Amino acid sequence: MKRDIEKIASRAYDVVIIGGGIYGAWALWDATLRGLSALLIDKSDFGGATSSNSLKIIHGGLRYLQHLDIKRMRESIHERKVLMSIAPQFVHPLPCVMPTYGHGIKGKEVMGMAMLMNDIIGFDRNKGCDPQKKLPAGKAISKDELLKILPGLDETNLTGGAIWYDCQVYNSERLLISVIKSAVKKGASAANYAQVTEFITTKDKVVGVKIRDELTGKQFEIRSKIVLNTSGPWINNMLGQLNGHQPAEKFQLSKAMNLVVNKRITQTHAAGIPSKFEFKDSDAVINKGSRLLFFTPWRDYTLIGTTHVPFPGDPNDFAITEDDVTTFLDEFNQAYPAMAVKREEVVYYYGGLLPMDDTGERASEHDVKLTKHYKLLDHQAENGLDGLVSVLGVKYTTARDVATKAVNILMKKLNRQGKTETENTVISGGEIPDFESYLQDENKKRPWGLNADIIEHLILNFGKDYPEVLEFLSENEQWKEKVVSDSDVLFAEIVHGIRDEMAVRLVDVVKRRTELGSGGYPGDTAAKNCADLMANELGWDEEKKQTELEFLQRSYLTAK
Ligand SMILES: Cc1cc2nc3c(=O)[nH]c(=O)nc-3n(C[C@H](O)[C@H](O)[C@H](O)COP(=O)(O)OP(=O)(O)OC[C@H]3O[C@@H](n4cnc5c(N)ncnc54)[C@H](O)[C@@H]3O)c2cc1C
Predict the structure, then answer these.
(1) Contact at 8 Å (CB) between 397 and 59?
(2) Residue 478, Cβ neighbours under 10 Å: how many?
(3) What rounded mean pLDDT belongs to the chain?
(4) Ligand 1 centre and the CA of 226: distance in Å?
(5) Taking Cα atoms as reference points, which of 409, 536, 390, 559 lies closest to residue 476?
(6) Lowest-pLDDT range, 16-25, 274-283, 434-443?
(7) How far is CA 370 from the centre of its chain?
(8) What value does the CA radius of gyration of the chain take, rounded to a whole number of Å?
(9) CB-based contact 127:81 (threshold 8 Å)
(10) Distance between CA atoms of residues 224 and 456, nearest Å
(11) CA–CA gap between residue 373 and residue 387 (Å, rounded)
């Protein structure tokens, strides 16, 4: 996968996709498998916006049970199962727990029933999945069992807990890159750091886009039969460019944030505990007055999510402030005082913008009503402009399915035949029907004398494609060394990111091609070692290297 804007701009496409978040990535893969010539472009790095900022839960939608939204639950359960099958290197089971209070609506008996309903609705949740990754049935547990998982939790009115199973993505950034790579291996085109600056239109039709190469400033015009807009939070900015065809209403956005804490709060289970902050969920059947704070073990960290506040500004001005972090930390510590997470233990944060509904009335600043359903807009029907379809997604979990629905619209408009194949086609590196056995087999082989921890690390990040990373060792065996002693990332992964995965900035390698900095700043030694290798590969001078190092450091800081 090489970045070559001159080459991609020298031809026309069936579809140009604007935005390489998870929605654009799946759309590229789907369109390519259906035989469309497709180009994906992102103004920054692939997955550099909302999609690398998720809590990494692939959830079966248990929370929708409280809205009795069975259709949405089925969609989520189905997607969880599909992702376990087509991206088994990344998606793994995650036990989850929730405390129960009293014997009423939030009590153990009702929650036990809810777990049973969850299992009945998800009766086929394990169909066709790796037998070693089966998601067991949920159950109610005693107060003592609950307190073993969540020690020190306030015991007032506590009666026990409920356990269910979801999934977690080990590396959501690499999952996204692997989807794009799968498409490129099958003939799709893609480029990062290429901004769509304008739509090219005839009277009532979009016929292409103007793009600017953000690395060189060069401008290009690219023609396509249709354009798919998956620009996520930038949807208003993109549609604002449609002279005379802008939609009447703008989409409202909320700022969402997770904290990354440098210790495990629970060892085995993700947990949802009630926030003490005021919240009003008028659609909920079970719990109208409180929302759950969800925290999950991930690698050596805990991710705590998710807080929301309305964001009326421009997505280009989005930033997480120190106040955002301390307010959310305070909310978590009020909900679970025994954990007393200190500010200095919060080593990073994930932040992004999500669509919300403007209800007008709110119980507090944090009372945000997130948009529940994705939006698919055929602008011909919406505002009389042919050749443009927009997608506004609400979940990482369901992105593949929504992208499929978007490509269905494209196929119809292009008068082309063909059903989606993404549901049954494993992504690049995912040909692993039995994950544990594969791990054991590869450990026996011990390629290049690498130890078991490194092999597991490589498989969790690259799946069955990990030999592609090790191929670079034939050129320089020293690249099998770790970038820094407290991480398993090898120099070979950096070279692979640059040469095979379009990493062009230091931040791309540190945060998205490797797991080095996805949980926080990896330290000056690691950053410098990466920058030295990148400078060598890409011909950076000392000044450029310093600029990249400073940019990386700044990306971990909160705004004032
Ligand atoms: C804090 C947080 C936690 C979350 N946790 C979860 C979770 O646990 N599970 C779950 O399922 N979902 C979760 N989500 C939701 C999920 O992350 C999002 O729904 C999803 O990532 C949105 O993807 P997207 O592709 O629509 O947007 P994005 O990832 O933002 O992609 C849009 C892309 O468009 C590009 N773009 C914009 N304008 C242009 C232009 N003019 N030219 C070229 N490119 C352009 C941008 O650079 C960007 O990369 C979470 C979200 C947040 C913020």
Answers:
(1) yes
(2) 9
(3) 94
(4) 22
(5) 536
(6) 274-283
(7) 17
(8) 23
(9) yes
(10) 42
(11) 23
How far, in Å, CA of 61 to CA of 55, rounded? Answer: 14
Gap from CA of 449 to ligand 1 centroid (Å) = 39
Answer whether residue 65 shows pLDDT above 90: no
**In contact, 208 and 222? CB cutoff 8 Å:** yes
Residue 236 Cα to ligand 1 midpoint, Å, equals 14
**Which atom of ligand 1 is nearest to 46's Cα?**
49
Domain parsing of the chain, residue ranges:
5-50+173-245+384-424, 91-168+252-370, 435-554
Q: What angle do CA 381, 46, 436 make, to 5 degrees?
A: 110
pLDDT, tens digit, 9 for 90 and up, residues 280-294: 555 555 555 567 899
**Whose structure tokens read 């390489």?**
20
Ligand 1 centroid distance, CA of 337 (Å)? 32
pLDDT surpassing 90 at residue 528: yes
As to burial, measured by CB atoms within 10 angstroms (0-12 exposed, 13-18 middle, 19+ buried), residue 475 is: exposed
60 lines ligand 1 (CB under 6 A): no
For ligand 1, whether the C-beta of 311 sits within 6 Å is: no
Alpha-carbon distance of 438 to 454, in angstroms, equals 14
Q: Quick check: 161 pLDDT over 80?
A: yes
Q: Is the CB of 315 under 6 A from ligand 1?
A: no
Would you say the CB of residue 350 lies under 6 angstroms from ligand 1? yes
Burial, 419: exposed, middle or buried (Cβ in 10 Å; 0-12, 13-18, 19+)? exposed
Let me know: does 27 contact 492? Beta carbons within 8 Å.
no
Residue 138: closest CA among 192, 95, 202: 95
pLDDT (tens digit per residue) in 187-232:
999 999 999 999 999 989 999 999 999 999 999 999 999 999 999 9
CB within 8 Å of 444: residues ≥ 6 apart: none
Report which DSSP code applies to 482: B
Is the domain defined by 435-554 classed in CATH 1.10.8? yes
**Given the structure tokens 């900095």, which residue do they identify?**
517
Q: Give CATH superfamily name and number for 91-168+252-370.
A: D-Amino Acid Oxidase, subunit A, domain 2 (3.30.9.10)
Read off the amino acid at residue 79.
E
25 lines ligand 1 (CB under 6 A): no
Three-state DSSP class for residue 140 = strand
Q: Which fold has domain 5-50+173-245+384-424?
A: FAD/NAD(P)-binding domain (3.50.50)
Q: Is 323 left (phi over 0), alpha (psi -120 to 50) or beta?
A: alpha
Of 222-236, 239-253, 357-371, 460-474, least confident by mean pLDDT is: 357-371
pLDDT digits (tens, 9 = 90+) for 398-428: 999 999 999 999 999 999 999 999 999 999 9
Q: What confidence category does residue 243 fall into, taking pLDDT thresholds of 50, 70 and 90? A: confident
d(CA 257, CA 459): 29
Residue 429 identity: G
Residue 320 confidence (pLDDT): 95
* Residue 57 beta carbon below 6 angstroms from any ligand 1 atom: yes
